Prior knowledge:
Elements: E1 6-12, H1 26-36, E2 47-52, E3 56-62, E4 67-69, H2 70-77, H3 83-102, E5 105-106, E6 115-118, E7 125-128, E8 135-136, H4 157-173, H5 180-184, H6 196-205, H7 216-220
Antiparallel strand pairs: 1-3, 2-3, 4-6, 5-8, 6-7
Helix pairs in contact: 3-4, 4-6
Amino acid sequence: xxxxxxxxxxxxxxxxxxxxxxxxxxxxxxxxxxxxxxxxxxxxxxxxxxxxxxxxxxxxxxxxxxxxxxxxxxxxxxxxxxxxxxxxxxxxxxxxxxxxxxxxxxxxxxxxxxxxxxxxxxxxxxxxxxxxxxxxxxxxxxxxxxxxxxxxxxxxxxxxxxxxxxxxxxxxxxxxxxxxxxxxxxxxxxxxxxxxxxxxxxxxxxxxxxxxxxxxxxxxxxxxx
Length: 225
């Protein structure tokens, strides 16, 4: 039998800020829920095993081979991806986000470093990793911690996820990564070389007003996609 490739994640106990009702970390609870409802074609990486020790939590995770994170994939490409490849990746990312939303899970940290691209076929497959900041949500849930993509003290799961998806698309299509400081100073510029529909999708997802951003389902029906 062939050996399964795995990744080992060590989480110091002092960095486990949230625990589920049964005492396990929220990250483990979420990954167990995702694994139980997985059809083996879903985007989240699978949790294969876990060990709750005195000083740390150890997660044994699926490790797709060959694969690299989206940031590395962009660098390997030698610069920005073309719109067609970015579109293939973005569709899968939005579908993954909708699936999480339907399961009442908020990833909270969608970015190019937390997206793996499997390259075993001609069509790249998106995989989501690092659920360390994720949480279960109830309808109308809101959060008050400062977050990368908001300049206010309160943010909601849906609009925040849409904004993060917009940042990922920006990173795929530009030589410089999205910078929140430049964005909030109105200095972040969308490339003039992009198609009209692509620029529109970027502007709508990166709208400074959360209420004016599309929902994930509305985003999936955008003309660019």
